[in-house]
Design brief:
This protein has one domain. 17% of the residues lie in helices and 30% in strands. It has 6 helices and 9 strands.
């Protein structure tokens, strides 16, 4: 179902932007989260157990030359953006020390990378293009899909569980997290990166649906409880 390009862009902005609830990959103590703002800025983070190994602000814009936002189907939008990591710490909600003010007044050049808040090579700060699909519906948390074992109904704890579901899903053609070759693996970071594989994460969700608001069909979803598929954590 096609729709006016301006209408589609406004619909995408309304669903994509906002800091009240972050886009997340899920994972409990793990953190792969980001947000977009209408003013063309945003922030992205990765971490676990209250330790963040990446907190980066970015700028973004629709890439109208590649493709204007379009409603591809009822409840699904496709669009292309350009996204650029910055060396500022203006927006990230994961940092609150005095270094932020110093950084605002005199932001370092990407050529000075890596940084304490972003162990990345300078190539990670170049503009990058992404094609995204934004969907509304009922979606299982990506983390839960990653740890799923075959036939959850017959698994023991902790693999016999009802997954978290969300009302919005955002899928990238390539992960918004830098590829492996753009990280500087200092200290114990290599083992952390090898375990979390942030650069493989392409789908994110927001708009959590509480268990009490799930339908009976979702609670008794045989497509989940009797599914033979295995999450990548067990392959």
């Amino acid at each position: 179902m096609a729709t006016n390009a301006n209408d589609a862009e406004e619909q995408v902005l309304a669903l994509l932007c906002g800091e009240a609830e972050l886009w997340t990959w899920g994972g409990g103590t793990a953190t792969c989260e980001f947000f977009f703002k209408r003013n063309g800025t945003g922030a992205i983070a990765a971490g676990a157990n209250q330790y963040a190994w990446l907190t980066v602000d970015f700028t973004w814009s629709f890439d109208h030359q590649a493709a204007r936002p379009v409603m591809a189907d009822n409840g699904t939008w496709k669009f292309t953006i350009q996204m650029t990591f910055t060396t500022l710490l203006r927006l990230g909600p994961w940092r609150g020390d005095g270094a932020r003010q110093d950084n605002l007044q005199n932001p370092p050049s990407p050529s000075e990378a890596p940084f304490p808040w972003a162990p990345l090579k300078s190539a990670a700060f170049r503009p990058k293009q992404y094609t995204l699909t934004l969907s509304r519906g009922r979606f299982i948390e990506p983390f839960h899909l990653s740890i799923k074992k075959p036939f959850p109904l017959f698994q023991s704890v902790p693999y016999c569980f009802a997954p978290n579901r969300y009302a919005s899903k955002l899928a990238f053609d390539t992960s918004p997290y830098p590829p492996r070759e753009e990280w500087v693996e200092t200290g114990g970071l290599r083992s952390i990166l090898d375990y979390h594989l942030d650069w493989d994460k392409k789908e994110f969700v927001r708009g959590g649906i509480s268990k009490k608001d799930e339908t009976w069909a979702e609670m008794l979803d045989l497509g989940w409880w009797l599914s033979p598929t295995t999450g990548f954590r067990h392959k």
